[in-house]
Amino acid sequence: MHVMILGAAGMVGRKLVEKIAREPLAFGRPVTRLTLADAFQPPVPEALQPVSTALTIDLAGAGAADRLIESRPDLIFHLAAIVSGEAEADFDKGYAVNLDGTRALFDAIRKLGLTSAYVPRVVFASSIAVFGTPFPEVIPDEFFTTPLTSYGTQKAIAELLLADYSRRGIFDGIGIRLPTITVRPGAPNKAASGFFSNILREPLVGKEAILPVSDGVRHWFASPRAAVGFFVHAATIDTARIGARRNLTMPGLSALVSEEIEALRRVAGDKAVALIKRVPDPVIERIVAGWPTQFDATRASSLGFKAETSFDEILQVHIEDELGGRFA
Amino acid sequence: MHVMILGAAGMVGRKLVEKIAREPLAFGRPVTRLTLADAFQPPVPEALQPVSTALTIDLAGAGAADRLIESRPDLIFHLAAIVSGEAEADFDKGYAVNLDGTRALFDAIRKLGLTSAYVPRVVFASSIAVFGTPFPEVIPDEFFTTPLTSYGTQKAIAELLLADYSRRGIFDGIGIRLPTITVRPGAPNKAASGFFSNILREPLVGKEAILPVSDGVRHWFASPRAAVGFFVHAATIDTARIGARRNLTMPGLSALVSEEIEALRRVAGDKAVALIKRVPDPVIERIVAGWPTQFDATRASSLGFKAETSFDEILQVHIEDELGGRFA
């Protein structure tokens, strides 16, 4: 089968590619062709080089989506996006990529399907940013989407398009709303949510990390490995089980920052915990106060999507996948 | 003030224009300029001719929205749309007008606001078609929007855009989800919902009407007069009271077809009821079974939006507004 990953240079995209490299039968059929595309040149693991094409593209560019879809991928992962902070700061760019780029992709599939039989599976990375305060402590599957960012608005619109195009049989789509992915590998970044990962990742390798919010902050988490698992499951599930409501809040772990810290203590001791420096940042505190803390992801769970159930597990995943099973 | 009505040739648009003709101070300030636009030439009441411009436009046409907004209306009613059946039959036309046309309008306001202070009030006609089965018997304000038509999808997307553009201060928007407007004046039309009006309007003037569903069908109604009231209230309400959630399900009357018939009997007697011919139509029965039957429109009610509370009232409105207070 021909698999296409848009946003293949991003963290989750790269991990999805690595998964395919390790498990060529992850989708049940051999991956005979792999197209990786991103705004930055996506890396290609050696094992996949014979079947891979890596492209640097602007999804919102004229004709870009049509050229991608011409190659008739059977399975398309759409993870390409301008992230939340940038989409808020740059109105035009956020709408151009996250809305127009997504619609161009969906319409390219539609146009190809008008002239020949073509109904690919499309797995779309959505976000819990489709929700906006105030919400109940535990957000149910049928809660309305009232985003408070342009990014969340663009994701919610893409979800609606995905459902309508799927209903019309243009493609077979699933939108998956990811929890905050933790522990993110790599260097600390400036995302407001970065500290959730920083306070675990950095102390595990003997480095300090800053905690800008109180220990009592609650949030919604899954590991990068769980995220890849969501995408693989979404690629292979029988969509007849899903029906018309194609956008699913993924399961996750609702946990306090203090629970993160206690898991770190159990795994790496007081010495690691002592590396967490409390530097309250009112701006980040205010941003985080607007985020969901817990979902009742009954539908996705009943459809077989799985996440971790404790921060000990999330830490263990990080140690296995990023630190070769060992830590400092 | 300069008032613009897009979709001014439609039934609700025309009634809104007539309201302004009768009550020049309906919005608190005199209407010194009125721009009426539609795909068909909108009629202009004589009293408003000195201040009115009537335009035939295609909102989705190149530059059309910019040319409209150049005149800097203070208050914009956006009722222009390709209706549900046509948007479902003609994919391109529905998306072009209902999504691209709406976005072009919103972006025209944004562009003008980039070069000079301009933040108009925008009142958008949305629809309960943003909801799709299965839903609870009474749909709460926080229920999610999972439309099962392209029309409903386009309305739900426009709602999201309206909320995001309002949050950013580009304009001051309100989306109002109208109930099924009953009794629609004019000739019977082919809309699947037409019979709800036909079985009242036609017998009142001594004509037969066909009832294609059972008496036990429940639906959600408001009169044309109530719809105009929603628009006027949305134009004048202090939006600080609404906050970020700018799209509101309007109040309405949840009633059975049998309640419509009994109201007709009380007003016009058995002779009128006898003109209703039962001709079951499985296609219409199936379509109607997918429609909402009742909402808990708490938010809109608490914000002062008002609809009828009985079919006797709805019939009385029709007799007063369409039949000069008399019926055959």
TrEMBL record, chains A, B:
Its EC number is 5.1.3.2. Keywords: Carbohydrate metabolism, Isomerase, NADP. Pfam families: Epimerase (PF01370). The keyword Isomerase applies. SUPFAM superfamilies: NAD(P)-binding Rossmann-fold domains. It is an enzyme of class 5 (isomerase). PANTHER family: ADP-L-GLYCERO-D-MANNO-HEPTOSE-6-EPIMERASE, NUCLEOSIDE-DIPHOSPHATE-SUGAR EPIMERASE. This is SDR family oxidoreductase.
